[in-house]
Amino acid sequence: MPRRGSDGEIHFYYIYFRQHLKVCYNVYMEVREIFTSDFFIAIIAISSFLVVLTFFLTIQSTFWENYKRRRMEIKITSMKDHYIINGFGRVGRQIAQELAEEKTPFVVIDKEEVFDECKKNGWPYIHGDSSKDEEVLKKAGIANAKALLIAVGSDADSVFIAVSARSLNPDLFIVARASSQDTADKLKKLGVNRVALPYQIGGYHMAVMAMRPAVVDFIDTIFDSRHDELHVEELQIEEKSQLKGMPLRNVLPRDKKKVAVLAVKRAGVPSIVNPPPDTILQAGDDLILMGTKQDLDQIGEEFSP
Q1: What is the DSSP track for 120-177?
Q2: Model-level pTM greater than 0.90?
Q3: What separation in angstroms does the CA of 84 have from each of 113, 147, 190?
Q4: Are 296 and 231 in contact, with CB atoms under 8 Å apart?
Q5: CATH topology classification for 228-303
Q6: What digits encode the pLDDT tens for the residues 202-232?
């Protein structure tokens, strides 16, 4: 039998739960009104749009980067007689700028992600360490390249790159940077055609600037590709060239051509500086010519084999 007064307790709890149920129902209706309001629906719509837009922009950016990368790889694969710059530090950047001024095709290699300038200027590049992996040089088209410029900061890396490059392309013209004479001697023994010693070049240039400033200004004008006043180029006499066996006076008569022949480089003998007009040109000779870019280009087109 229930205790006396239990009916009152039951009624109390009934009233209590009924009131709380009513409160919960009111809260539910208020929340429902909020979620079904036009303002909330607008917020949800805008948020959804922003999420979808961000997603598609990310996908588009990734797709565009992959597309540009693929185009660049195809461009590198199709290159011939191009230059490869291995190392994109201060020296490598200067080399790239000079080649770009001359409109000469080139590819940049570096083991660090330092290609912002390449991306900005549209210069093809490859990320990799060619001192450890010769596949990087193969991707740069070393088999079809005209020259390799090794501008890395480590002498050890320069040696390893030179060994790999010479084995991949025995006819490649290689220019390397070295920080000591010992390294320069080793690189020459490995088949590097030219070795640049920055401290030696800088010291010589500063000394000549102090002693013969006008001469330095003139030389800088000649070799600065941004000036069109004078340029220096070389013209090689090949075995099938029409110039083979001809005297110099018939090739570049001074009264008709505005191009000066500074020297004739011939294998096995010292360079012939300011060659006389009766100099007979031979296969393998390199003519060092000076003139305006327009005149030099005309000479190259006229006498190219």
Answers
A1: HHT--EEES-TTT-THHHHHTTGGG-SEEEE--S-HHHHHHHHHHHHHH-TT-EEEEE
A2: no
A3: 17, 6, 18
A4: yes
A5: Alpha-Beta Plaits (3.30.70)
A6: 888 888 889 888 887 877 776 666 656 677 8
